[in-house]
Amino acid sequence: MTEPVTQVIETGGAHLARGLAKVEARLREIAAAAGEPVAGWAGDTIAAGGKRLRPLLVLLAAGDDSPAAVRAAAAVELVHAATLVHDDVLDSAPLRRGRPTVWSTAGRDAAIVTGDHLFARAFSELVANDDVVQIRSLSRASSSLASGELLQRADAWDTAVTVERYLERCELKTARLFEAACDLGELSAGSGDAPVLGAFGRRVGLAFQILDDVLDVTGPPERTGKHRGADLLDGTVTLPLILAGFEDLDLRAITTPAQAEAVCDRIAASGALERSRERALVYVDEAKRALPEGMPTAQRRAFELVADGVVERYS
Amino acid sequence: MTEPVTQVIETGGAHLARGLAKVEARLREIAAAAGEPVAGWAGDTIAAGGKRLRPLLVLLAAGDDSPAAVRAAAAVELVHAATLVHDDVLDSAPLRRGRPTVWSTAGRDAAIVTGDHLFARAFSELVANDDVVQIRSLSRASSSLASGELLQRADAWDTAVTVERYLERCELKTARLFEAACDLGELSAGSGDAPVLGAFGRRVGLAFQILDDVLDVTGPPERTGKHRGADLLDGTVTLPLILAGFEDLDLRAITTPAQAEAVCDRIAASGALERSRERALVYVDEAKRALPEGMPTAQRRAFELVADGVVERYS
Questions:
Q1: Which of A14, A93, A189, B104 sees the fewest Cβ atoms within 10 Å?
Q2: Residue A127, Cβ neighbours under 10 Å: how many?
Q3: Contact A95/B at CB under 8 A
């Protein structure tokens, strides 16, 4: 089977492959410009960032690989990377996608400074698009990310967290940046109209986070870069656990990967994974229906493939 | 003797007192809007921020207390506050201006998230001024702050650091945000001309940082909120130590406040404090000379008082 991301690129138009290559080159340039040692840490963080789903959404929404679209895509990815490097400090995470984190190799101070640097650079990059509406969109998403990270910490170890509260966290932590990615792409194309694709991005972001949380329970570790049940050991209560209804479970008593994997097996046996996936599918369906009527066929098909790809756990 | 800040306000025009009150109210609003518990931590960080020298520069450069000037002033102070809360994590600082830090009361995670939040909110605030040039100025200053913090860590414990390298650090850590404060004020007044007051801000920022470093050696603790020689215990090599020429000093061997204070006494006896102050005075003088010819008398006099006030250690 072809990788979902490859399908999207093949379907959506030649500007996607070109644009992603430009974004990659630009991210490398930005990291290198920081000077050593930050350049190395920033570069490692960006390299560990995965499949560039957010830049892909920007380029797809833009419909071109113009300098403005590439800058917007790089800016969104920089905010994402800044968040990752700070999250790794908060989580004391040794690995991300199977690679050592800046926190683990260079320490807490290096990771905090690297994150601050990437974050500041995101705005410097986007500023060149000369569009305050784009900056507003990205700064709102950035505030949301910080609030979402906090909500996660406030709710840690609390197995009585509601589905609504969990979804609010997904909204802040993930969906708002996906929404901004689509808005920024559309805005950078410069039609002058108010962007409409954010509604697609937001829903795909919700589905993405839910399925990411499912993947933490199911593994396999080769794909996630960590053992199953890492969220349980962090005290992060996610939809599969909430729907499994183990309200009496004492998360603090789970202290080893083996214990976490045993709880994962119990969650799987409860049917909560299927029910979580169903919720995600509803958002994927809503996302597709949020695509505007008059959208060109190739673009629509590519957006639909992104939405379907999220379900096939594409990140 | 009247406080320098009071003199500036009395001299510079009624808009300064009004503007600072509006900035204060706006900062409180922004902190509160974060929702608990971040609201409390953000509020504490902002409350610990001192005498609002950066917002004062914005308002002074703007020449009014328009909504745009107040937003710019709040944005600059939010970036400053974000930096402080992250610096306290990096320094494991229990106190700032004699008050417990977020790091010490709520922990590392709370402080990282609070800083990220304040930083994101700075840009959200400034975006409302609808001026990409202002955002560019603030994002550059923010990148510089992160780079400066890093340079400080890279140079830690190294008593062979040069004066040039020390000044580069001051430029990044302090002067660029002072420069941005002046630029933002001028830009928010909207004459359409390129800003010229940044040159004043930059030099005053350099003087401010040098004198801040002198104050770390001289105390008194009631004014700094920490014992003398805190920089020595952190491994931060500053101008007084460089000029004292103690290149054989092993900073890592200084582990108690009493030892640090003894080294402070040796630095003072070497005459390095006077020589540091002289360097600062050169920047203060340059700052005043950077003020443009045609500036109204009251505004000029207020700017000069800011510069002189920095020498009287006004922060």
A1: A14
A2: 24
A3: no
At which residue do the structure tokens 């600082």 appear? B93
8 Å CB contact between A144 and A172: yes
Return the bridge partners of B95, or none. B100
pLDDT in tens, A53-97: 999 999 999 999 999 999 999 999 999 999 999 988 887 788 887
Mean pLDDT of chain B: 90
C-alpha span between A6 and A14 (Å, rounded): 12
Structural domains in chain A (count): 1
DSSP A291: S
Using DSSP's 3-state secondary structure scheme, residue B80 falls into helix
- CA distance readout (Å), A165 to A97, A200, B210: 27, 21, 48
Q: Give the CATH number, domain containing residue B33.
A: 1.10.600.10
B100: helix, coil or strand?
A: strand
The answer to whether ipTM exceeds 0.85 is: no
| A108 CB within 8 Å of a chain B CB | yes
Rounded CA gap, B142 and B122, in Å?
A: 10
Nearest 5°: the CA angle A220, A221, A225 is 135
- Tell if the CB–CB gap between A145 and B116 is shorter than 8 Å: yes
Residue among B12, B184, B30, B21 at smallest CA distance from B114: B30
Range of the domain at A242: 4-311
Nearest residue to A82 (alpha-carbon basis) of A122, A35, A47: A122
Determine which helix (DSSP H) or strand (DSSP E) holds B237, and give its type and residue range.
none
* pLDDT the model gives residue A1: 41
Note whether A134 and A188 are within 8 A (CB): yes
One-letter amino acid at B220 equals P
Higher pLDDT pick, A38 / A300: A300
The pLDDT score that the predictor gives to residue B225 is 67
The pLDDT of residue A229 is 92
Burial of A229 (0-12, 13-18, 19+ CB in 10 A): buried
Which site among A91, A132, A157 would you substitute to test the B interface, given the most B Cβ atoms closer than 10 Å to its Cβ?
Answer: A132
Q: For residue A199, how many other CB atoms are within 10 A of its CB?
A: 18
* CB-CB neighbors (< 8 A) of A150 in chain B: 37-38, 113, 117
What pTM does this model have? Answer: 0.86
